[in-house]
Automatic annotation (TrEMBL):
<feature type="transmembrane region" description="Helical">
    <location>
        <begin position="15"/>
        <end position="35"/>
    </location>
</feature>
<dbReference type="Pfam" id="PF00916">
    <property type="entry name" value="Sulfate_transp"/>
</dbReference>
<keyword id="KW-1133">Transmembrane helix</keyword>
<dbReference type="InterPro" id="IPR011547">
    <property type="entry name" value="SLC26A/SulP_dom"/>
</dbReference>
<feature type="transmembrane region" description="Helical">
    <location>
        <begin position="195"/>
        <end position="217"/>
    </location>
</feature>
<feature type="transmembrane region" description="Helical">
    <location>
        <begin position="82"/>
        <end position="104"/>
    </location>
</feature>
<feature type="transmembrane region" description="Helical">
    <location>
        <begin position="116"/>
        <end position="140"/>
    </location>
</feature>
<keyword id="KW-0472">Membrane</keyword>
<feature type="transmembrane region" description="Helical">
    <location>
        <begin position="373"/>
        <end position="400"/>
    </location>
</feature>
<dbReference type="InterPro" id="IPR036513">
    <property type="entry name" value="STAS_dom_sf"/>
</dbReference>
<feature type="transmembrane region" description="Helical">
    <location>
        <begin position="42"/>
        <end position="62"/>
    </location>
</feature>
<dbReference type="InterPro" id="IPR001902">
    <property type="entry name" value="SLC26A/SulP_fam"/>
</dbReference>
<protein>
    <submittedName>
        <fullName>SulP family inorganic anion transporter</fullName>
    </submittedName>
</protein>
<feature type="domain" description="SLC26A/SulP transporter">
    <location>
        <begin position="11"/>
        <end position="378"/>
    </location>
</feature>
<feature type="transmembrane region" description="Helical">
    <location>
        <begin position="323"/>
        <end position="353"/>
    </location>
</feature>
<feature type="transmembrane region" description="Helical">
    <location>
        <begin position="237"/>
        <end position="264"/>
    </location>
</feature>
<feature type="transmembrane region" description="Helical">
    <location>
        <begin position="160"/>
        <end position="183"/>
    </location>
</feature>
Length: 503
């Protein structure tokens, strides 16, 4: 025993933490799988791989990986469009891309992605997830697109009011959300039980005791649910749409995992995350999940924070949580058949709500309205269009904002009434500021001598250089001294540009 203690000095803390993480992960793994339109067991498979495979690899010692609510909408759309066999190919390709990016040391570059884009992405996912799971909580079939889900809610409410079974199902889902919200205030040992697990257990007990007519999880068995992708599924790689889905999986799963790692690092004083190695660990896990035909994985902040708060000290806790998931899936799979589907929908409604950064958005609007706009536009684009294009719109808007801010320039006109008019241009003169610059210059009188001082310009791009040259050539009227340009120490323009004409 003393030898084991010396080899694993934190075994007691990690063992206790692993049980907590297992209890948090179990209902989420099942709920994410059901919401994604795949067998419940595949969610457990991804949780097992996230614990045992990814958990053993270097990168982030206390971060826990598994199926995530943030990918539910994208997975459901992929399965609906390409079929369940193609999911394994998508996840496998995602894993291989992550491994390649980690090997090329691109992991740290994901930290350069605008936080507003990531939060907007999660907010958009949260909105679509909540809308879709409201239908599931009532036992109704949800529309396909995000917009239709939201617009169809009033009609769904009318249908629910007219159906006793739908009302009962919705009551179970609403009760699940209420228990999760209030459970954290429970005193004593009961409060130590994860809220999601407590809510599912209570919902299951009530539906069984009172015979509430609700749908329950369909059970296939662990080995029956695992279906590695066949040759036909790999043939779908010729589809442009499927390749776009792989890129979306890769970007979103990687960004979510690495942002989660940064958040988890702020929760503990242990070793910091090695981002390239963590990206490779996620890639290895997704590669195995793809081979098994399971759900994609990301690092999950809910499980990771539970792991830290439960006192975990090493990666042993996350590996053990994967072992407990494996034992449950192998020994007690029939227990899944007792879980009411509206209870799982309630869990995901709660998870979707937490994906929307309400407080953060208020703070952004007060201090950085441009970033708040990017967040909102990204979220709305995901709801209106789709996940991949919504993220691209957010990234494009973020780049435009950055370029706009980087092109700050100042134009000052000094006219003393006699002698030449002095015009001072400073900062970064780029095409984004060109309309305002030209409006000011073209409004100057043409019958007066004019000096344009560019010594304060740090950068003069091709568009601005050409426009200023043309303006200087045509500005003066006959008999008036040509525009005189002083460049001082301004960096020389590109080679193909002729220097601005001086008087």
């Amino acid at each position: 025993m003393s030898t084991a203690v010396s080899k694993f000095p934190y075994l007691r803390q990690d063992f206790a933490a692993s049980l907590v993480v297992f209890l948090v992960a179990l209902p989420l793994c099942v709920g994410v799988a059901v919401a994604s339109g795949v067998p419940a067991e595949l969610g457990l498979v991804t949780g097992i791989v996230g614990g045992i495979v990814t958990g053993l690899m270097p990168g982030s010692s206390l971060q826990v990986s598994g199926p995530a609510a943030g990918l539910t909408v994208l997975v459901f759309a992929a399965v609906d469009t390409y079929g369940l066999p193609a999911l394994g190919v998508i996840v496998l390709a995602t894993g291989l891309l992550q491994l390649a990016m980690g090997a090329l040391r691109l992991g740290r570059w994901f930290r350069a992605i605008s936080l507003s884009v990531v939060e907007g992405m999660l907010a958009g996912i949260g909105l679509v997830l909540i809308a879709g799971q409201l239908y599931a909580a009532a036992g109704l079939e949800a529309p396909a697109s995000g917009v239709d889900k939201l617009l169809g809610l009033p009609g769904a409410a009318v249908d629910v009011v007219g159906s006793t079974e739908a009302l009962a199902s919705l009551a179970v889902g609403a009760g699940t959300v209420l228990v999760m919200v209030l459970w954290r205030r429970m005193p004593g040992p009961a409060g130590a039980v994860p809220g999601a697990l407590a809510a599912v257990l209570l919902a299951t007990a009530i539906t069984l005791a009172f015979g509430v007519p609700v749908a329950t999880v369909e059970v296939q068995g662990l080995f029956d649910a695992i279906q590695p992708p066949g040759a036909d599924a790999f043939g779908r790689l010729a589809s442009i749409g499927l390749l776009g889905t792989i890129v979306a999986f890769t970007l979103i799963a990687s960004a979510e995992s690495l942002f989660s790692a940064a958040a988890v690092d702020r929760l503990h004083d242990g070793p910091r995350t090695q981002y390239n190695k963590e990206l490779m660990a996620q890639g290895a896990g997704n590669t195995v999940c793809g081979v098994l035909g399971a759900l994609p994985m990301t690092a999950v902040i809910v499980r990771s924070s539970a792991n830290v708060q439960a006192g975990a000290r090493t990666k042993a806790s996350r590996v053990l949580h994967g072992v407990w998931l494996l034992l449950f899936a192998a020994l007690l799979p029939s227990a899944l058949a007792l879980i009411p589907l509206p209870a799982l929908a309630g869990i995901l409604v709660h998870a979707g709500w937490k994906l929307i950064p309400f407080r953060g958005l208020v703070g952004l609007w007060r201090g950085h309205r441009g970033e708040a706009l990017i967040l909102v536009v990204t979220a709305v684009s995901i709801v209106v269009v789709n996940m991949f294009e919504g993220v691209l719109i957010g990234l494009a808007l973020s780049i435009v904002k950055t370029a706009w801010e980087a092109s700050q320039s100042k134009l000052e006109v000094i006219d003393k009434g006699a002698g030449p008019i002095q015009v001072y241009l400073s900062g970064n003169a780029t095409f984004l500021r060109l309309p305002k610059i030209l409006d000011t210059l073209e409004a100057l009188p043409q019958d007066r001598p004019l000096v344009l001082d560019l010594s304060g310009v740090h950068h003069l791009d091709h568009a601005c250089h050409t426009a200023l040259t043309n303006w200087a050539e045509r500005h003066s009227t006959p008999g008036t001294e040509p525009v005189r340009v002083t460049q001082g120490t301004t960096p020389a323009p590109q080679e193909e540009d002729a220097p601005l004409r001086t008087g």
